[in-house]
Specification:
Helix content is 41%, strand content 20%. It has helices at residues 4-35, 37-42, 46-51, 53-71, 78-91, 98-113, 119-146, 240-248, 282-295, 316-325, 379-391; strands spanning 156-167, 170-177, 191-197, 203-212, 218-223, 254-257, 273-278, 301-307, 329-335, 354-357, 372-376, 399-402. A hairpin with a 2-residue loop joins strand 1 (156-167) and strand 2.
């Protein structure tokens, strides 16, 4: 892995690089997009550039990778690399783009740190960069090969065959390949990238979890991302792609869709499962539940979901119908404002779901030993759910999470 000489130099310079990384990453993106504006237009998420989350994720991933190399010189942080590689593959990232990133990243580093970036320092951090980049390239090659597209072009044109309004702000799209060939294989819990052309000519890409896989097609669900001014006082722009899909894409239209990717997938064993989701984070769990129901799984399953109200709970009926099909499954639901509508929801065989008011408290549930848990929802929710599950005895290795957007948790 990292050579002893470079390890010594990296260890000595980590404090300076860490202190400067907040300046380095925005300057890097400024230089990158000035030289390659097509990357911002057609590859990078413009919203995540605007709110700074992509910069934070890049800085965090570099720091995490370097720290791991220093603390565990004989190990590679595969969990970090696999998560990033799946996202890169869903975007169609190419091997020849890594030298471009390296050029502008190191130019930004040299500009911020100045004379501190000696030839020795540059060589040491260059070694770190290429250890990380080559690990990602190798992982992405494997993913592309598994998808049947070793050249990295996983995009295909799909036609929208149906659209269903799950709630006022969530729509499910059913799509089939226009070439008539089979859809690529997927695993429960994975996502696809969807590319749309916006009014300004940009081809923006977003990832959406597969909420089911109908025969001969794919199914993904999209929540409209509203703009507004949160409690922090910082205005947030409305979702470009989610708004376009909701307003302009209907049955008969076509979309560019990637092969399915994602490293958070359903465990195929026979042990107990728990899904803890909030808001639109229910979509990967619904896909996993649909798979379990189709297989007639006898596993113990707890499907726990939190939402604002029953009206904002996407797949509310699907949740209960799927749980009804599983002999050892229960649904546990929390609403901030339940209202009378929550009372009307029940199961077909008398297994009425438990509906509570307030925020999710997993400590109130009887969680079987050996439970494997999947979390998806806003990051503060997942942090709280993870802490509750650890307190309940779930092993850290059995806690898996999916996040929409840059993974700042990693």
């Amino acid at each position: 892995m990292l050579s002893p000489k470079s390890a010594e130099t990296v260890r000595a310079t980590v404090p300076a690089v860490a202190a400067a990384i907040g300046e380095v990453t925005p300057l890097f993106y400024e230089k990158l997009f000035a030289a390659h504006p097509e990357l911002l237009r057609d590859l990078f998420n413009r919203a995540h550039q605007a709110d700074g989350s992509q910069r934070e994720a890049l800085a965090g991933s570099i720091a995490a990778f370097a720290g791991h190399l220093l603390d565990h010189p004989d190990e590679r942080p595969d969990a970090l690399l696999h998560r990033i590689a799946h996202k890169h593959a869903s975007l169609g990232v190419r091997e020849d783009q890594y030298p471009i990133v390296r050029t502008h990243l190191f130019a930004a580093l040299a500009e911020v740190l100045g004379d501190a970036v000696t030839d020795e320092v540059a060589a040491a951090w260059d070694e770190v960069y290429w250890l990380m980049a080559n690990g990602l390239i190798a992982a992405e090659r494997r993913l592309y090969a598994a998808a049947g597209t070793p050249d990295g072009d996983t995009w295909r044109t799909y036609r929208v065959t149906g659209r269903v309004a799950e709630t006022d702000d969530v729509a499910t799209f059913f799509v089939r390949p226009t070439d008539g060939k089979p859809v690529p294989p997927s695993r429960p819990g994975q996502y696809v990238s969807v590319q749309v052309e916006l009014a300004d000519g940009a081809h923006q890409i977003r990832q959406y979890s597969l909420s089911g896989q109908p025969d001969g097609g794919l199914q993904f669900s999209v929540k409209r991302v509203p703009g507004g001014e949160p409690a922090s006082g910082v205005a947030t722009p409305a979702g470009e792609v989610s708004g376009h899909l909701h307003d302009h894409v209907h049955e008969g239209d076509t979309l560019r869709v990637s092969a399915p990717f994602g490293d958070v997938v359903l465990d195929e064993g026979d042990g107990p499962l728990l899904f803890a989701t909030a808001g639109i984070g229910c979509t990967p769990a619904i896909g996993m539940l649909a798979h379990l129901a189709a297989a007639g799984s006898p596993r113990r399953v707890i499907a726990a979901h939190a939402d604002r109200t029953p009206a904002t709970h996407a797949f509310r009926d699907d949740l209960h119908h799927l749980v009804d099909k599983l002999p050892n499954a229960t649904a546990e639901v929390w609403y901030e404002r339940p209202g009378p509508e929550a009372e009307a929801t029940g199961s077909g065989d008398g297994r009425t779901p438990t509906v509570r008011q307030g925020f999710m408290t997993l400590g109130a549930l009887e969680i079987p030993p050996g439970t494997i848990a999947y979390l998806c929802g806003p990051v503060p929710f997942m942090k709280a759910a993870r802490a509750q599950l650890l307190a309940a005895g779930v092993r850290p290795a059995d806690l898996h999470y999916e996040v929409f957007g840059p993974d700042l948790g990693l």
